[in-house]
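DATA SHEET
Item: assembly model
Revision: 1
Owner: S.N.
Input lines:
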Amino acid sequence: MEQTQNNFPKWLVPGMLLIGFLGFLDSLYLTIQHYSGEEITCNIIHGCDVVTNSVYSMIGPVPVALLGVLYYLAIVFAVILYWDTKRKKIMQLAAWATTAGFIMSVYFLIIQAFVLHAFCQYCLGSAVTSTLLFIMGMNAVCRKKKMV
Amino acid sequence: MEEKNIDEMEGMSKKEMKAAKKEAQRQAARAEARSKTMRSAMIWGGTLLVLVLGVWGLTKVSGPETEQPTLSTTEVASSDHTKGAVNAPITIIEYSDFQCPACKQYAPVVRQVVENYPDDVRFVYRHFPLRQIHDQAQAAAEAAEAAGMQGMFFEFHDILFENQGEWVGSNATANTKFLEYAALLELDVDQFKEDMNSAAARDKVNNDSSSGTQSGLSGTPSFFVNGQRINNPRGFEPFRQLIDAELERISASAIEINTEDIVVEVVDEEVVVDEETEDGTDTE
């Protein structure tokens, strides 16, 4: 009885893996386009290139998209590590890390809406995946806290 | 419970029983360790496989569908649409947008320039659609490319500018008008329709456009005269003066041209050498 209480919800590992993987592909796509200097195919919303060519798309010499790739890769890696070793600390760490991704997404959403007045569908996609990761992460962490 | 059972067993000394128990435990531990490593290997191997497959799929999807040359503002590429003498001393590259009113005004000026300098000016048209403010600019550029595939790029270019007011509006209007113009030019309309929506047309326009972005352009029309960005001349007369000045500059630096001639001779010799090796026996 105590064991099941302490465990994270069953959907946590597959859920975070799936969403983390999608986020990884999304930001990898943006990174590839960034370095190949190609225009992004923008078939839902107009204004992708405004966003991806803006000054906000870089932090110093590093494109934001590349940070996204590393972030999602780290999340996926941590979740797999937890799945493998069953060490709860790792999952807790990953769950807290989603906060960083979420805050970044909110920041870029604000930039797109109020500064650039343009949206890029792949950036919005990343906002969705990082928000989902955040919700799942917080859910796991909070549930854990209640039990203790 | 278990220990009691073992205690009750007969025909085994306590020592033997202990050894057997330990051995069983050891085997179980080993089996468990083995299955754990197997599980780990499957998990990490699977992860790696999925990631690699994902990356591979993505590069397939996002990679350029058609090969495009790297464009510079100093050289004319084979993919460029050009007008005027091929060996003209002056090359004018225009970055333009079919939906931009200023570009429409410059179209007759450019035509005048090309007509007035049949031997001295080569004109290149490159796309720089301002997609944010001109909703049909990209589509118009792609349509012009489709016409270009049937050898009528500049004819289509002229029609687009002349009738700029009538094809802007909705996607449907633009589409119908483009097909109308294609028919007007007696193009193969079915082929035109297909080309208009092709990856080749899209990539050509995007390649032009990103070369403009790389050159630091932000607006249209933008002109480069022999690689040098110029302030847009206000009409034909200032444009003429600018070209005359450039022609004068070129003839003044005739000594430099002479050295270039020498380089050309060397290149000619290299070609001869190449031919010899081709004609001769296999060296490798």
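QC remark: Chain B touches chain A at residues 39-40, 43-44, 47, 50-51, 54-55, 58-59, 61-64, 131-132, 135, 206, 209-210, 213-214 (CB under 8 Å).
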